[in-house]
């Protein structure tokens, strides 16, 4: 799907916009000042496929910790700042590769100019994040409710402040917990601005609700060519987010180095614990970066036929299973060897 053309913004060494790549983002849920724990979490997310990471900066201790974190990680780091321009300056000085800051919320224009000047000097972009739940009071009153038009009006205010300072290395986001409002807002943003867009559904909830809401909203937008980077927000550990976004991008044909796992829904013919096997293999595949289709089928009746398009497959049965490669049955395996053998075949593929 051809991406909508935007300005290009560099986030460290990553060109955002004017290309077909949609970068995967996540955000640490550990206080940034807890340096060792944050580094460990980021390195784990890197292995899973995260390409940009964001951290919160609530105070100067958080901001100064960025310098230490940057020494150990390999992907661009975004500092999330609200209201305090001094924190933005401290994060920039500490080595942040991008900041998330709404310029209209940090006081006088002099404060904004100081931040913009520092960003220009270090070649650091700014993401303006418009959330439906925190629109300005007058905009909310003007439209009577939260609307896509109101979100765009809010963005124009913030963007104009940066443009008055001759700053254009800007990224925009328009998040809501309502997936249909997200779709409308991002479509309108795409026709209003030429800045790269960060896709997301905010306050999306649990793994289940987030996967559904995000697939509806962000999947729709991705298939329309809208969006240059994406975060799927899930309550809890950020490690939950990466598999969902990778699956979404894979199914939208936007990335290819992601395994494809096929598993039958089970029925009365199933005579082995396929659910445990599927869960273990799904977890194992999260750090596998190769294009491979793995099928785990519940029985030897339909399994071989249904798995014929997989690179590697198992059709389980009573006490044993069939190992299948490229549609051909290779051998029978004892049931207790199925999972370990699948892992070995995946590694060697």
UniProtKB/TrEMBL annotation:
Q: What is its EC number?
A: 1.17.7.3
Q: Which UniProt keywords apply?
A: 4Fe-4S, Iron, Iron-sulfur, Isoprene biosynthesis, Metal-binding, Oxidoreductase
Q: What is this protein called?
A: 4-hydroxy-3-methylbut-2-en-1-yl diphosphate synthase (flavodoxin)
Cofactors: [4Fe-4S] cluster
The reaction(s) this protein catalyses? (2E)-4-hydroxy-3-methylbut-2-enyl diphosphate + oxidized [flavodoxin] + H2O + 2 H(+) = 2-C-methyl-D-erythritol 2,4-cyclic diphosphate + reduced [flavodoxin]
Domain of life, per UniProt, equals: Bacteria
Give yes or no: UniProt keyword Lipoprotein: no
Q: Family, per the entry? A: Belongs to the IspG family.
Taxonomic placement: Bacteria, Bacillati, Bacillota, Erysipelotrichia, Erysipelotrichales
Q: Where is the IspG TIM-barrel domain?
A: 6-244
Record GO terms (molecular function): 4 iron, 4 sulfur cluster binding; 4-hydroxy-3-methylbut-2-en-1-yl diphosphate synthase activity (ferredoxin); 4-hydroxy-3-methylbut-2-enyl-diphosphate synthase activity (flavodoxin); iron ion binding
Record flagged with keyword Iron: yes
């Amino acid at each position: 799907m051809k991406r909508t053309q935007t300005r290009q913004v560099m986030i460290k060494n990553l060109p955002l916009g004017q290309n077909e790549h949609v970068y995967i983002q996540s955000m640490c849920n550990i206080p940034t000042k807890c340096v060792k724990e944050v580094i460990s979490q980021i390195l784990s997310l890197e292995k899973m496929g995260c390409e940009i990471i964001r951290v919160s900066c609530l105070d100067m201790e958080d901001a100064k910790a960025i310098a230490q974190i940057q020494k150990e990680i390999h992907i661009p780091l975004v500092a999330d700042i609200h209201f305090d321009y001094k924190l933005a300056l401290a994060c920039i000085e500490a080595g942040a590769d991008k900041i998330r800051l709404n310029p209209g919320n940090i006081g006088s224009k002099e404060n904004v100019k100081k931040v913009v000047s520092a960003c220009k000097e270090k070649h650091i972009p700014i993401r303006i994040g418009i959330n439906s739940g925190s629109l300005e009071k007058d905009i909310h009153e003007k439209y009577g409710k939260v609307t896509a038009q109101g979100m765009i009006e809010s963005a124009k205010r913030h963007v104009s402040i940066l443009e008055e300072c001759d700053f254009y290395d800007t990224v925009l986001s328009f998040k809501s917990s309502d997936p249909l409002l997200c779709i409308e807002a991002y479509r309108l943003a795409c026709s209003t601005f030429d800045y790269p867009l960060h896709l997301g559904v905010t306050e999306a909830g649990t793994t289940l609700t987030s996967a559904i809401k995000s697939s509806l909203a962000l999947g729709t937008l991705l298939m329309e060519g809208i969006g240059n980077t994406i975060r799927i927000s899930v309550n809890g550990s950020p490690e939950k987010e990466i598999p969902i976004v990778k699956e979404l991008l894979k199914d939208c044909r936007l990335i290819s180095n992601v395994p494809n796992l096929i598993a039958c829904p089970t029925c009365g013919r199933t005579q082995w614990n396929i659910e445990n096997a599927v869960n273990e293999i799904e977890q194992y595949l999260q750090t596998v970066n190769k294009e491979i289709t793995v099928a785990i089928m519940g029985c030897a009746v339909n399994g071989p036929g249904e798995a014929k398009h997989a690179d590697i497959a198992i059709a389980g049965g009573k006490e044993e299973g069939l190992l299948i490669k490229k549609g051909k049955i290779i051998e029978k395996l004892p049931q207790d060897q199925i999972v370990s053998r699948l892992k070995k075949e995946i590694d060697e593929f």
